[in-house]
Design goal:
16% helix; 2 domains; 5-stranded mixed β-sheet; globular; TIM Barrel; 276 residues; Immunoglobulin-like; 15 strands; alpha+beta
């Protein structure tokens, strides 16, 4: 989220107060080129955060979100830095680097594949959708294509709040951390122990041979995405589904799972490589 420190409409205290009142365990205040230090806001953990934009490359731009870094060790590159330099700077300061809104940024598959050291990519960015932007909130297609070419990235979802006019509190990332601290949350983000959601929850995903079992909160759809175009049984439909079992096709090299509940809210589990 953003504040009046860059291009957000709420002050840092006002922005933090909204999410604290909604019961969030942690947030990242990611103003453009204005690193935020670690803190606690009435019991809510505030991760050190920042959003950095790389020098435009033709029609595409690259925005890199950093979280969990040591602000004193973050050496911001100068104007004209490329995306890789931004990623490297965040990692050198002990943080995690996230590719923000690749669909909105019109990132190409080759560009995403070229990046090294990303801890995640945003599969959904609320503010990148209508009515705040053109309808490029959902980056699932470009990220599936990138995964097919070898860039199998963990997935987060974010609101990227600027206006605080309905985009806040929609998309978030659920983290499996031992405690609610900057160190534990950053470690979980670095290790891939998280999933993205707008409401539905994953309980367990397991792969046994050629079968994938998903256990989750009650949903109406469970959909399996991969590197192949067609699989007859990849979409499970019903009412209050809580467990499904999918048989992998021989040509599938990775698998990604998406949940959709009766309100149309989604959850996304990161793609996992499949042994061939």
């Amino acid at each position: 989220m953003h504040s009046t420190r860059s291009d957000g409409r709420l002050s840092p205290d006002e922005a933090l107060r909204f999410f604290q009142a909604r019961g969030y365990d942690f947030v990242a205040l990611t103003d453009h080129w204005r690193p935020c230090e670690a803190g606690s806001f009435h019991g809510m953990t505030v991760l050190p955060g920042v959003e950095l934009d790389a020098e435009p490359d033709g029609d595409q731009v690259a925005h890199i979100v950093g979280a969990g870094f040591d602000p004193e060790k973050l050496a911001l590159p100068g104007a004209g830095a490329g995306a890789q330099a931004l990623i490297d700077a965040i990692r050198a300061a002990g943080g995690v680097a996230i590719l923000a809104h690749p669909a909105w940024s019109m990132n190409t598959v080759n560009f995403i594949v070229s990046l090294k050291g990303l801890s995640a990519a945003e599969i959904f960015n609320t503010f990148s959708g209508i009515p705040w932007n053109a309808g490029r909130a959902d980056s699932s297609c470009i990220l599936d294509l990138a995964a097919t070419k070898g860039a199998v990235l963990p997935l987060v979802a974010s609101d990227d709040c600027h206006c605080y006019a309905g985009e806040q509190g929609i998309s978030r990332t659920m983290v499996n951390a031992r405690e609610n601290s900057v160190e534990a949350i950053t470690g979980a983000l670095r290790d891939g122990r998280f999933f993205a959601t707008q409401g539905p929850l994953f309980s367990q995903i397991s792969i046994d041979g050629r079968y994938v079992t998903v256990e989750c909160s009650p949903v109406d759809r469970v959909v399996f995405y991969s590197n192949i175009q067609w699989s007859e049984h990849r979409c499970f439909s019903g009412q209050d589904l809580t467990s499904v079992r999918y048989r992998l096709e021989e040509a599938e090299r990775y698998i990604r799972v998406e949940l959709i509940d009766r309100f149309g809210r989604r959850a996304w589990f990161s793609p996992a490589a499949v042994e061939t």
